[in-house]
Specification:
alpha/beta; Rossmann fold; 6 helices; 6 strands; about 20% strand
Length: about 160
């Protein structure tokens, strides 16, 4: 399975209440970042079978912009919330066809912690996934444990150059 992991674009300032924070939208710059990422994905010939997104507004916006550009359907998965359950997320992925190409849109620190788990390095390995940054993993197994290889880790600046 090919797993493309995209952190949402730049959003407004964090809000103190968790409920309100979930409705924080992308900024104008964040929307532009995501359009550049989508163009870069297109130029890299990335064609996900579908996109899965956190239900938080900034992630959904990122997924929707990407979905329109890549002509891919977007699904919302609660497992991709910032406080999501990595094990539940990976279990849900394991039920998909093993040839699937999935673009996941979510938040930090969930995403880098999940990447660390999949590639088998301790959490806090030093991987930094910036806002509108992209990683590509090849999942090699789901059983008995999810394992894979990190293929790319691209910054928004590099993605902009590719767009």
């Amino acid at each position: 399975m090919e797993l493309f992991i995209l952190r949402h674009g730049e959003a407004g300032k964090s809000l103190p209440a968790r409920r309100q924070d979930g409705e924080r939208p992308l900024t104008t710059d964040g929307e532009q970042q995501v359009r550049e990422v989508a163009r870069a994905l297109s130029s890299l010939k990335v064609k996900p079978d579908f996109i899965v997104s956190s239900p938080l507004k900034r992630a959904r916006q990122t997924a929707d912009i990407s979905g329109r550009a890549l002509k891919a359907k977007v699904e919302v998965w609660d497992e991709l919330k910032p406080e999501g359950d990595k094990k539940a997320f990976l279990t849900k992925l394991s039920k998909l066809r093993h040839e699937s190409r999935v673009l996941c849109v979510g938040h930090e620190p969930f995403l880098t912690s999940m990447i660390d788990d999949v590639i088998g390095v301790p959490n806090g390995s030093g991987i930094i996934l910036r806002k509108a940054g992209l990683a590509r993993l090849t999942i090699t197994s789901f059983n008995p444990k999810t394992g894979g290889v990190l293929r790319w880790l691209l910054t928004p600046r590099l993605l902009k150059q590719l767009s």
